[in-house]
Amino acid sequence: MNDLMTKSFLSYVELKKQAKIDTESDHVDVEKGDLHQDKLSAFFSEIESIKTLIEEILISYTISRT
Is residue 19 part of a domain? Predict the structure, then answer.
């Protein structure tokens, strides 16, 4: 039982140390957003153009089959 409590306490202490390091450092938090906004905008723009191209191909294919 003592061993279990010691391990649990040490894990807690280590977690607290890591939390302190994270808050004190210049660690970038992904959840804050706007970090890669430009890259994502370009990515989704490219996806939209690909979707449009696929729709055009499907329409052309459907017309050619009739």
Answer: no
